Amino acid sequence: MVQAVQQAAQQVLPAGAVAPDFTAQSLGGQQLSLSATLKSGPALIVFAHPKINASRLVVGYLRRMAEIAPALPIWIFSEGREAETLEYVGSGDGAYLKMPVYGARFLPATYLIGADGLVIRAYSGFSRDFLNWVANEAAGLTGGKAKELISDGDNKGFYELSERGPCA
Q1: What's the pLDDT tens digit per position in 112-155?
Q2: At 76, is the secondary structure helix, strand, or coil?
Q3: Do 73 and 46 touch, CB atoms closer than 8 A?
Q4: Which pLDDT does position 54 carry in this prediction?
Q5: What SS3 state is found at 63?
Q6: What is the spatial distance between Cα 138 and Cα 140, in angstroms, rounded to a whole number?
Q7: Under DSSP, is residue 110 helix (H, G, I), strand (E, B) or coil?
Q8: How far apart are alpha carbons 13 and 152 in whole angstroms?
Q9: Where do the domains of the chain lie?
Q10: Burial class (CB in 10 A: 0-12, 13-18, 19+), 152
Q11: What residues contact residue 41 under an 8 Å CB cut-off, 6+ apart?
Q12: Which CATH number is associated with domain 2-150?
């Protein structure tokens, strides 16, 4: 089991790889460009599916990132249909549809990309340790307030985390 989890985590672009540039349009019509965004600092990109529990947990916890690193853009790319994506996120401005998943074979796949366009670190699946690392690293990179995203006593349930709300 541990080996399977480690292999899944390796099915993403490795640290130091150049993150492929792209432009995307949100479900709300907003145009984004990775290269233009990185001129202002790092970005967090998540490939997810609203029907996958691990995706819902990752996106749910990342909603807390605004208080830790408010300057960090977080882009959620949904592999789901538009209707189910909007049902989950509740707004079109934080969700984007159908992008190449940067080589990830499993969802969710989360990438912290530096202002230099290089992958700082990536992970596929749900990992409390990885998300806490991302929160602290993002706070350091953007001048935010470092703290754990998911604490030891955090027992938020699936349904509470997956309630509608903004993703970005």
Answers
A1: 999 999 999 999 888 889 999 999 999 999 999 888 888 877 76
A2: strand
A3: no
A4: 85
A5: coil
A6: 5
A7: strand
A8: 29
A9: 2-150
A10: exposed
A11: 71, 72, 115, 141, 142
A12: 3.40.30.10
